[in-house]
Fold:
Amino acid sequence: MLDDFMIRAALAGIGVALAAGPLGCFVVWRRMAYFGDATAHASLLGVALALASDLPVLLGVLGAALATALVLSARWGGTYAADTLLGVVAHASLALGLVAVSFLHGVRIDLMGYLFGDILAVTRADLAVIWAGALAVAALLVLRWRGLMTATLSPDLAFAEGRDPERERLVLTVALALLVAVAIKVVGALLITAMLIVPAAAARGFARTPEGMAALAALIGAGAVIAGVAASFRLDTPAGPSIVVAAVAVFLAAALAGPRLAERRAENGRVV
Structure:
């Protein structure tokens, strides 16, 4: 079965989606979209460094994404607002990555694949790495779920329970860097944040509990992968962007249905 490139593509995308959905919920709750964007953009610099030093691309991407995420996690004071600094780091890291790639003479690199993903070229080895990384992210979120939720809702409450909010933030940082490292093959550096944000945002209007939102986000992401890969095969469109477009279509449908759902809940006396 794994000899079929379409099956491998779908399995790779589903693996990423199952981890990106729950992790994306925390990105939405904590309003960390720019943070995820900056971490994803840094992955291209990691690709260039890995190729220049003959290291596995996965290690280079993971190292660059983790280093950027850790730097951004530090509390920066001074003149500039956090969103300004995040925007500067995101675009600077992407630009540095593109410039660094241009200096790699004699090295063949599919730049468009790293920018927008090349899910149809996923191999069996890639599939194993993607699922291993995705399962590691999912396991990390499950094990730290209560602490992550408490720190997200109220850092003061987390302190009262004997939890360190900064440690929980570090857990999210590591999970985000790991997801970026395994997802770059699927949707590319420019679209990773979309796979984090869009399914979670689409699930928000329908879920009644945080756990329900995380599960629904994973399902929406997996469904978007299947729809996007199928559309790519039938319409000859880029697979990575097609997956994101499918997820956005679900989000738009959820946005349109949201007010009606809220009205029904209010009529039934339920808390939205």
